[in-house]
Amino acid sequence: MPPSASRGSIGALRRFKCLNTSLQPRSFSTTSSLCSIGPENPKFIEIPTTLQPQVAPKRVIKGVLPPPRNLFPNRAADKTTPKYFQKTTPEPRHANPPANDYVAWKQEMAETRRRNLKEGLVELRTRKTSQDGLVAGRSALKSAKRERRVYRPQREDERLTGSTITAAMRQLQRGALPDPQRDTRVAEKRARVAVKEAEKEESRRAALHTLYMNARTFITTEEKLDERIEEIFIDKPFQSESRSIWDAKGAPKTVQDMLSTINHSQKSAVLYGRGPAQITGERIKKIAEELTGGKMD
């Protein structure tokens, strides 16, 4: 560590100071003197900063500008024609000389407004035409550039360095694969569709015929409705004293009863000795319905 300078040596240095100079003495430090910065300044207290400069804050602009109005829509009439100016800013009917300075000033202001409106519309129309031309030109250039890139031929380096494409993959890229059995499959599908349509048509015809046969008992008038109500809603609906339809007409047939009738294995002697006439009649009725193609009573 070097030895510290004594007070005598420092005082000797002061004798060599130039007394006629007007320059302020410059210190060896690179920092600014705090004497030139007041306490109200934010830089009065030194705060270390980063090496990277700070991002400038986003300016807050108060208020929102409205969108510009379209003065020249596509379906509107031309606003730069003399006919439009004649309707919008008509000239005075009687060109009388002004009576005083105020009337002259009013006439001059009216003429200024008419002239400003005409010049403004013409300039705005010219600006819009030029701007539309620039936009259309840029769009055409972009479209042409895209078309050239899309339909340009394959480069030689891409062809030489590209992967090998087999014949099957090339066929897939060109379109659908050939199907030699297509006509046969299409004919079979058409036949199946025709059969299903015929079945649907037959089912609809049978349903219509059944509706026609059942329409005999439909209630279509108020008199028939009253008669049916009087017939059903009586004090004693059954011949016996029973209040239940199961007691009056018996319980409904079960699956076992139906199988016993078909197999002719009823437990009751009356039913067992009745014979197959009833079953045969029902079967003949179904056969007749199938042959005639409709419901039978």
Task: Please write out the topology.
Layout: H1 7-14, H2 82-88, H3 101-150, H4 156-161, H5 167-174, H6 182-214, H7 222-232, H8 245-249, H9 255-263, H10 269-272, H11 277-292
Q: Helical amount among residues, as a percent range?
A: 40-55%
Q: Mean pLDDT score, rounded?
A: 81
Biggest beta-sheet profile: none
Q: Uncertain runs with pLDDT below 50, 5 residues or more?
A: none
Shape: elongated
N-to-C order of helices and strands: HHHHHHHHHHH
> Rg to the nearest angstrom?
55 Å
The percentage of residues in β strands lies in under 5%
User: Structural class given helices, strands, pairing?
Assistant: mainly alpha
The number of helices is 11
Q: Distance between the terminal alpha carbons, to the nearest Å?
A: 134 Å
